[in-house]
Design a protein that fits this description.
Helices cover about 40% and strands about 15% of the residues. The chain is an alpha/beta fold. The two termini are about 20 Å apart.
Length: about 475
């Protein structure tokens, strides 16, 4: 029998209902695995003590409701350290918030509690979600379970590592420019960035408010769907959440028309990743889907636009963390010293870099030259994708241009930013996107997973799950 912590969410739900395992046994298996490997991986910043009342309530719910009980009842999940759980520390992996204890639940946490899910611990991340490797945490780096010499991706690297190493059955992360999908690709799991506004951001420590979205990291597409359905929905605490029916319904089509922007998949992508991508496309074509070459010329400018818009929103969102109103407080001889000491001590190098860049692009004399032009480019990009979706049902490309890289390999910030080249478009357009494992490549004697990135129109998560499940099936065949 598969170890309980190595099960998928769906498998564990079936085992719990069949009385093959108990909720306590499932919890204990995950906690034991987490304590055994966390010193090596640093996936968790904190592993929680068992909430005996919650464990008992989940077991009772399964026993009394049987097959009608929510499938997430009794399932241990890992939660990224920027998502609030009442009574627990939520530091966003920063010294600035190391003593902050949440006074309320994020809406996604509240929904998961209502479904009977259990929370295993809070996972490591790049500070305030700023990074693509989890090397920018104030509490040490997280290692990739596939090869501990390499990064797990970021900023949700701790959540991805916890799932890939079978410490948790699934996890929540946040995605501002690829922070769920990129680590999912690097660790060989599934990651979903939902449609902007389909999942509440209430209780998520903000990085870029027009870009952030909470989503699942899971072992299978089906598990990602289960968690997404549990956390999605309009929320009166988040005015950006969308009401049911706002996105036009698109009938599910099989076979699908799959758009392939081959002009984007050039020399910047490693040859073996291009080969894995081509093999996956061939398998989809053999399954009856139609492959259509499409042009997305504005995508060449997406990364530049993102790295103007995102820092601008970072600068605004983190302005309140000044040592006076919120966050770490350091005192100097003057009020200016208080600000300088608090923010310099509290924020890491990458966070300070993005705050300064964002403040610059919003400053008088530069906002027109940079921010407003980037926002105009974003509008063109949205229209370009919308027009493409008149011709195809989904658009695919590799999730990342290379597999997981070694620690320190991307020490140049620009090299690190290029990791997001394929993922930022979904955040700029607000469209949903899914990363699904599509194979492995060899590096330095290690077999490293790589992902296929699937984008669909607003509200078309079902298209992602359907096509993602086919990619998953072909990979396992």
């Amino acid at each position: 029998m598969t170890k309980p912590n190595e099960m998928t969410v769906s498998e564990a739900a079936r085992a719990l209902r069949a009385r093959d395992i108990s909720v306590q046994e499932l919890w204990d298996a995950c906690v034991l695995a987490s304590h055994e490997r966390n010193q090596e991986l640093n996936a968790f910043l904190e592993i929680f003590e068992a909430d005996k009342a919650a464990v008992a309530a989940a077991q009772k719910r399964i026993d009394t409701e049987g097959e009608t009980a929510p499938l997430l009842a009794g399932i241990p999940l890992a939660i990224k350290d920027n998502i609030l759980i009442e009574g627990k520390v939520a530091s966003a992996a920063s010294k600035m918030l190391e003593n902050y204890r949440a006074t309320y639940d994020a809406t996604v946490v509240k929904k998961l509690k209502e479904a009977g899910a259990l929370f295993l611990g809070r996972t490591n991340m790049d500070e305030f979600a700023m990074g693509s490797s989890t090397e920018h945490s104030a509490y040490g780096t997280t290692k990739n379970p596939r090869d501990t010499r390499r990064v797990p991706g970021g900023s949700s690297g701790g959540s991805a590592a916890a799932v890939a190493a079978h410490l948790a059955l699934a996890a929540l992360g946040s995605d501002t420019g690829g922070s769920i999908r990129q680590p999912a690709a690097h660790t060989g799991i599934v990651g979903l960035k939902p449609t902007y506004g389909s999942v509440s951001r209430s209780g998520l420590i903000a990085m870029g408010s027009s870009l952030d979205q909470v989503g699942p990291l899971a072992k299978t597409v089906e598990d990602a769907r289960l968690i997404y359905e549990a956390i999605a929905g309009q929320d009166p605490l988040d005015a950006t959440t969308i009401p049911p029916g706002l996105c036009p319904a698109r009938p599910m089509k099989k076979p699908m028309r799959i758009g392939v922007p081959r002009h984007l998949i050039g020399e910047g992508v490693d040859p073996d990743i291009r080969a894995a991508f081509s093999a996956t496309l061939d398998a989809l074509a053999d399954a009856g889907h139609t492959l259509t070459d499409i042009e997305l010329p504005m995508s060449h400018h997406a990364l530049a636009a993102y790295y103007v818009i995102m820092p601008a929103e970072v600068s605004t969102n983190l302005a309140r963390l000044d040592g006076i109103r919120y966050g770490l407080a350091q005192r100097g001889d003057t009020l200016l010293d208080d600000y300088l000491l608090s923010r310099t001590s509290g924020f890491g190098e990458e966070t300070r870099r993005r705050i300064l860049l964002g403040t610059f692009v919003l400053s008088s004399g530069y906002i027109d030259a940079y921010y407003r032009k980037a926002d105009a480019a974003r509008a063109v990009l949205r229209k370009e994708y919308a027009d493409a979706f008149d011709k195809v049902d989904a658009i695919v490309f590799p999730t990342t241009p290379s597999p997981a890289f070694a620690f320190g390999e991307k020490s140049d910030p620009l090299a690190m930013y290029l990791e997001d080249i394929f993922t930022v478009t979904a955040n700029l357009t607000g469209m949903p996107a899914l990363s699904v494992p599509m194979g492995f490549v060899e590096r330095d004697g290690a077999s490293l997973p790589v992902g296929m990135h699937i984008t669909a129109p607003h509200g078309a998560e079902d298209t992602l799950f359907s096509l993602g499940a086919e990619v998953e099936k072909e990979r396992r065949a």
